[in-house]
C-alpha cells in the first residue's frame, strides 16, 4: 500500500511544482507586456547563420560576427558570466554571455529568460578553453516566450503515447526523432527522383470516391451534402491510375495518403502513405526488377549503404533478392505440397496437421485461399531477408492477370523483408470480361458480409473495353519502408502525427 502511495505523492508534488512554474512564466510575460516589450509582437528576425554551418566550417567563421536564432535549451548563470545552449533546426551551439560585454540592463533581461524561450543572438565565434565552439554574445533578443517548461524535469517525454500526442515537444527534446523525419523526407525525395529519371510522370487522382475499389479493405464512409450521396475515402488509387494507362500515358505514379477503416498496431495506421506506379508494356517481372533496384538505390543514396540493421537483425539489400512461388515457400517451411493436394478438404486437413486453428468460415475457403492462409500463418514469419513471393491464387488476386498455362494462379508478387510485406505487384488484368466476372464474385462475397471485398466498378470495366495494354503495376508502403531504413519499431515512429485514441475527459 505504501509503495502505491509514494508514486502518487511524487506525481502530486511534480504537478504542484509545474503549476507554480506556469504561473511564474505568465507573470514574466505580463511584466514584459507592461514594459511595452511584448515578445509576441515581434514579426520577424533577420537570421543570417545556422549552428551547423558555424560548427562544420569553424575555420571560416572564427572571429566573425554571426546572427543566429533558436530555442534556449539550457542556461547556466554564474554571476557576471553565463552560458546557454541555443538550438535551431540544424543543431546546437553554446552562447557565452558576459555582463561587461553586453551591458548591465540587457544582461538583467537575459538572466530572466527561461529555458524554452526563442531568441535571436548576435556575437563573435570563438573556442572556449575547453575546446567548445561558442558565440561570444553581445546581443540577445526575446522573439517568443515559452509559457510551458520543456519536459526533461516535469515527467519527461519518454512515454510513447505522450510523445506521439505531443510530437512538437518530442521533436524539440529528442534529436533522434527529428533525424528520423529528416530521413523520411530524403527517402521520399529519392523515390521520386528514381522514378522521374526513368520517365515516370507523377499524377494525382481523387481521394473521395463513389466506389471503394482497388484493394481488399474496409473504407471510411462520408457524405456529400450537395449530391446527397455517400462517398468513400480511397483505399487505393489503382483503378484510376490504370485508366490513365488506357488513356495513353506509358508510365505514371502517385504517392499519397490512403485510408482504411481497420485495426491499429505497430504496422497499421488508419491513414498511411503509399506509392503506386504503372508501366505500359511491362509485366510483374519488370516490376520485381524495379522494386529491388529502387529500394537498393534509395538505401544507398540516403544511408550510404545497402547493408542495414533493423531491430538487431542485419539485412542485406545489396545481394540478389530471393524469389519463390507461394507454393514453393509453403512446401519449404511447412512441408505441405499443395500441388499434391486434390481439393480444399485435403488442404484444410493439412493445415490442421501443422497446428493451424480453423474456424467455421474456413469451410467456405477454396484450395487457393487455404494456400494463402497457410502462407500467412506459417511462412511470413520466416522471411527475414528480402524475398519475392510469386504465383498468388486467383481467388485472392481480383485485379491480377492469370498465368496462361496455369489459370488458378496469377502473375503477382509480394516482397517480404523482416517478416513483413513491403510491396504488392502484378501483371494487370486487362481482359474486361474476366475482370467483370471477378468483380461479380467479389460482390457476392460482399453481399455475404465481407466488408473488404471489392465493389463493382462499371466505369472501370468500360475503360478496359477500350483497351488496356499489357501493364505492370506496383504498390509500396512508404511508411513501412521508412521504418525499415530508419530502424523504427512502430509505424507511429515514422508518422509525424499518428492517429491516437482520444483522451478521456
Summary tags:
OB fold (Dihydrolipoamide Acetyltransferase, E2P); elongated; BirA Bifunctional Protein, domain 2; 2 domains; 9-stranded mixed sheet; alpha+beta; 37% helix; 505 residues; 5-stranded mixed beta barrel; 26% strand; ATP-binding
How do you describe this structure in short?
By secondary structure, the chain is an alpha+beta fold. It is built from 16 helices and 19 strands. It has two domains: 39-153, OB fold (Dihydrolipoamide Acetyltransferase, E2P) (Beta Barrel); 175-321 and 385-494, 2-Layer Sandwich (BirA Bifunctional Protein, domain 2), CATH 3.30.930.
Describe, in plain words, how this protein is organized in 3D:
By secondary structure, the chain is an alpha+beta fold. The protein has 16 helices and 19 strands. Helix 12 runs parallel beside helix 13 and helix 14 (432-447) packs antiparallel against helix 15 (458-466). The longest helix is centred in the N-terminal third of the chain and has 33 residues, at 2-34. The two termini are 27 Å apart. The model has no long low-confidence stretch (mean pLDDT 94). Homodimer.
Amino acid at each position: 500500500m505504501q509503495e502505491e502511495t509514494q508514486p502518487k505523492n511524487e506525481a502530486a508534488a511534480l504537478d504542484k511544482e509545474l503549476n507554480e512554474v506556469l504561473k511564474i512564466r505568465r507573470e514574466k510575460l505580463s511584466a514584459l507586456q507592461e514594459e511595452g516589450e511584448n515578445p509576441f509582437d515581434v514579426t520577424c528576425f533577420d537570421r543570417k547563420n545556422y549552428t551547423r554551418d558555424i560548427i562544420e566550417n569553424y575555420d571560416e567563421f572564427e572571429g566573425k560576427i554571426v546572427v543566429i536564432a533558436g530555442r534556449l535549451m539550457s542556461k547556466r548563470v554564474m554571476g557576471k558570466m553565463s552560458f546557454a545552449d541555443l538550438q535551431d533546426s540544424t543543431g546546437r551551439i553554446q552562447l557565452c554571455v558576459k555582463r561587461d560585454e553586453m551591458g548591465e540592463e540587457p544582461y538583467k533581461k537575459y538572466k530572466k529568460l527561461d529555458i524554452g524561450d526563442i531568441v535571436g543572438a548576435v556575437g563573435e565565434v570563438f573556442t572556449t578553453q575547453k575546446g567548445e565552439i561558442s558565440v561570444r554574445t553581445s546581443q540577445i533578443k526575446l522573439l517568443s516566450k515559452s509559457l510551458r517548461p520543456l519536459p526533461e524535469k516535469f515527467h519527461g517525454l519518454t512515454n510513447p503515447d505522450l510523445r506521439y500526442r505531443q510530437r512538437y515537444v518530442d521533436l524539440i527534446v529528442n534529436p533522434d526523432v527529428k533525424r528520423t523525419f529528416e530521413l523520411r523526407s530524403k527517402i521520399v525525395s529519392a523515390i521520386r527522383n528514381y522514378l522521374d529519371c526513368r520517365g515516370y510522370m507523377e499524377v494525382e487522382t481523387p481521394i473521395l470516391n463513389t466506389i471503394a475499389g482497388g484493394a481488399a479493405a474496409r473504407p471510411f464512409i462520408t457524405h456529400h451534402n450537395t449530391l446527397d450521396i455517400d462517398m468513400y475515402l480511397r483505399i487505393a488509387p489503382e483503378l484510376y491510375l490504370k485508366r490513365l494507362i488506357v488513356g495513353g500515358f506509358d508510365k505514371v505514379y502517385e504517392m499519397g495518403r490512403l485510408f482504411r477503416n481497420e485495426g491499429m498496431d505497430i504496422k497499421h495506421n488508419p491513414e498511411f502513405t503509399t506509392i503506386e506506379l504503372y508501366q505500359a508494356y511491362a509485366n510483374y517481372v519488370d516490376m520485381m526488377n524495379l522494386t529491388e533496384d529502387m529500394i537498393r538505390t534509395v538505401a544507398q543514396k540516403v544511408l550510404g549503404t545497402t547493408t542495414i540493421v533493423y531491430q538487431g537483425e542485419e539485412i542485406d539489400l545489396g545481394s540478389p533478392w530471393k524469389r519463390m512461388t507461394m507454393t514453393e515457400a509453403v512446401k519449404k517451411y511447412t512441408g505441405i505440397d499443395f500441388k499434391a493436394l486434390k481439393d480444399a478438404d485435403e488442404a484444410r486437413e493439412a493445415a490442421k496437421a501443422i497446428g493451424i486453428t480453423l474456424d467455421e468460415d474456413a469451410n467456405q475457403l477454396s484450395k487457393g485461399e487455404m494456400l494463402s492462409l497457410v502462407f500467412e500463418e506459417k511462412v511470413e514469419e520466416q522471411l527475414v531477408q528480402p524475398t519475392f513471393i510469386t504465383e498468388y491464387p486467383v481467388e485472392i488476386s481480383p485485379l491480377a492477370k492469370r498465368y496462361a498455362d496455369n489459370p488458378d494462379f496469377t502473375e503477382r508478387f509480394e516482397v517480404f523483408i523482416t517478416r513483413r510485406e513491403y510491396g504488392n505487384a502484378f501483371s494487370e488484368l486487362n481482359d474486361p470480361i474476366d475482370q467483370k466476372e471477378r468483380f461479380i464474385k467479389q460482390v457476392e462475397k460482399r453481399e455475404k458480409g465481407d466488408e473488404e471485398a471489392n465493389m463493382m466498378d462499371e466505369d472501370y470495366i468500360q475503360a478496359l473495353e477500350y483497351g488496356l495494354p499489357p501493364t505492370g503495376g506496383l504498390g509500396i508502403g512508404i511508411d513501412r519502408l521508412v521504418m525499415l531504413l530508419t530502424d523504427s519499431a512502430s509505424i507511429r515512429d515514422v508518422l509525424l502525427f499518428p492517429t491516437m485514441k482520444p483522451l478521456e475527459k
